[in-house]
Structure prediction request, 331 residues.
Amino acid sequence: MERHILVVFPHPDDEAFGVSGTLAQHAENGTPITYACLTLGEMGRNMGVPPFANRETLPLIRKKELEEACKAIGIGDLRLLGYRDKTVEFEDEELLADRIGEIIAEINPSLVITFYPGYSVHPDHDACGAAVIRALKRLPKDKRPTVHCVAFSKNCEQDLGKPDVIRDVSAVIDKKLAAIQAHRSQTEGLMKAAAKRGGDALEWLKTELFWTYKWED
Amino acid sequence: MQPIDVCEVQAALNRFANQDVYIHLETTNGAYASHHNEGFFSAGAYIRNGLIRFHRGKITGNRPYRVGLKLDFGWVYAEGLTDWEMTEKGQLLLAGHDNEGRLAVALQLSHEPF
Prediction:
């Protein structure tokens, strides 16, 4: 059992598709979870189907959606770090790592979950993962927690090999679906389309994949 | 214009930081995008001679590039940038040209109005 899990992602809903089943399982085991979410997804293009958000109301709507998703998963400690969507890569890398480092020092996690820097497609994802790795590199190698990374770039398996952590989350699929549906502004259209297709359109949600980060130094 | 050199553009951005500067920012799919491709949803916007002050400007990415300017109360951002030029008037011109060489995005900074 993990002592404490720290999740660091840049956007509300980054946790929903890729890791919410894993987190729900850990929460059921009694492991405390802290989720540091860097932005409120202010620049999202999805405004609901039909649209119920606009550029100015979207952040507050997504904040509430995120809080609801955390409740569904069993995340007890949500930290909103107040950065802005699509700008994470332009922040000062050291200062960003400082913020994440403070949380690491405070909660002393045994497992950290984030994006694999360089293999996560969206610049915010890569910058987020890079900041987490930068913060952890400041610790002596033997004091660093395990890091499980999410990656989905086209070249990720070619460069990183197969994911080494493969988790069946079908036992908590209801909680995962609730987390996804909580992000209504972003996911409702997608979920309706999947329901329409029917069959095994949502089968992929039952498996979650991670690459354990390998330290070079 | 010439292909972006990250170091030179970064140095140029730094020279515009912490002072009032005029900005030109535009994105465009071209006026005929929806004409030539009926399913294409064309959208764009532009600002001419906005007066801004940023304390950090940064170029990232790997051809095409992205530039973000952090203001005291906001952000300016452009993606898809490929080429740059420093004019005789000391204006920094950044542009993104598509595969056919057409302008898709422009981000420009100047000490005097454009």
